[in-house]
Write a structure and sequence with these properties.
about 70 residues; alpha+beta; two-stranded antiparallel sheet; Type II toxin-antitoxin system Phd/YefM family antitoxin; RelB-like
């Protein structure tokens, strides 16, 4: 399990309002979340139509150019 060294910031009523963590730990958390999201997306799209490499590049370029609607 990822160990997180956190400091809880409270307001004048001692109500928690924020959490402060070291930046390198934040980056590890962000990487874990991105990997989880990617794995979930891969699972959800396992049976979707597949593009060839060239078709995928062409589609990606059209997205960047704004040519394709959702």
């Amino acid at each position: 399990m990822l160990e997180i060294h956190k400091q809880i910031l409270v307001d004048e009523n001692q109500k928690p309002v924020a959490v402060e963590i070291p930046f390198d730990e934040f980056q590890r958390i962000e990487e874990v979340l991105e990997n989880f999201g990617l794995a979930k997306l891969m699972d959800e799209t396992e049976n979707d139509e597949r593009f060839s490499g060239d078709a995928a590049r062409e589609y990606y370029e059209s997205l960047k150019a704004g040519d394709v609607e959702d």
